[in-house]
Amino acid sequence: MAAGKATLLISCIDRPGLIAKVAGHLYTLGCNIITSDQYSDDEDGHFFWRIHFESLRLPVSELSKELDASMTSLLPWERLKWILFDAARRDRIVIMVSRLPHCMIDLLSRHHVGELDGDVVGVVSNHPDLESLVRPFEVPFKVIPVPKNGKGDSEAALLKHLGELRADTVVLARYMQVLSGEFLRAWGKPIVNIHHSFLPAFAGQRPHKQAHDKGVKLIGATAHYVTEELDAGPIIAQATTPMTHRDTVADLARKGKDLEVMVLAKAVRAHLKKQVLLHHNRTIVFE
């Protein structure tokens, strides 16, 4: 009987025999590999690997200690990064939203029917408007206003609230406030954002108006990790849909909402399933 399941993510400079070394080491530790996905980047020689396996002998916590003691000597190569995720430990997710409910409702619905490999432990908004929509899902709703000249106090309250919820991941489901660099550094954990354009085109405010003014024939939506540079973090998922000269800005916004729901859900699922590896400002996303 398996002691537990886990996912191991590895990135390092590619070397002959790497896969054999790690697979053999896991075997000696009593592990059975269930799935293995790897990718080699010919541009800079990096190797990326996602291994999902069951530990047949050791609890995952004990296995983690064994890997801590052995990985750097097993792969004594440049730029080694690795992290082990216990499949039994589900991420605690906080959804942040302003006034548009479509992405929030979709995530809450998916969580309600068990589609997300994580637990939504709270919804935070800078407005009270959506509380009645959250209440049926029995998820706590918290209003943290962001008054003019009061952003620092609001972010301090947000940090405190996230700590109380023991959150692991924040999802910005059309939260229309820019989080400061000070907040991001203090938080220090993943934040997934949905932006209503096909980044890097039309970053910032009013992307549908920007797209309409340019007369583009495709609009898109982009889910990415949040960094200090606005709308420039590593991209996890994107999608597009066609538009024509007949489409108004309102038409673009309506079409864009359908994309936002789909793209954000795809990105959140990939993040929770530990399918995403970061490399500089890029992602490697294993399906």
Distance between the termini: 28 Å
Q: What is the radius of gyration computed over CA atoms, rounded to a whole number of angstroms?
A: 21 Å
Count of helical regions:
8
User: Uncertain regions: pLDDT < 50 for 5+ in a row?
Assistant: none
The CATH homologous superfamily of the largest domain? Formyl transferase, N-terminal domain
CATH class of the largest domain: Alpha Beta
- Numbering strands along the chain, what is their spatial order in the largest sheet? 7-6-5-8-9-10-11
The ordered H/E elements are: EHEEHEEHEHEHEHEHEEHEE
CATH topology of the largest domain: Rossmann fold
Give an account of the 3D structure.
- This protein is an alpha/beta fold and 287 residues long.
- The chain has 2 domains: 4-86, Alpha-Beta Plaits, CATH 3.30.70.260; 91-285, Rossmann fold (3-Layer(aba) Sandwich), CATH 3.40.50.170.
- The chain is built from 8 helices and 13 strands.
- The strands form 3 sheets. The protein has a 7-stranded mixed β-sheet, sandwiched between helices.
- Helix 3 runs parallel beside helix 8 (249-272) and helix 7 (207-214) packs across helix 8 (249-272).
- The relative contact order is 0.12.
- The mean pLDDT is 93.
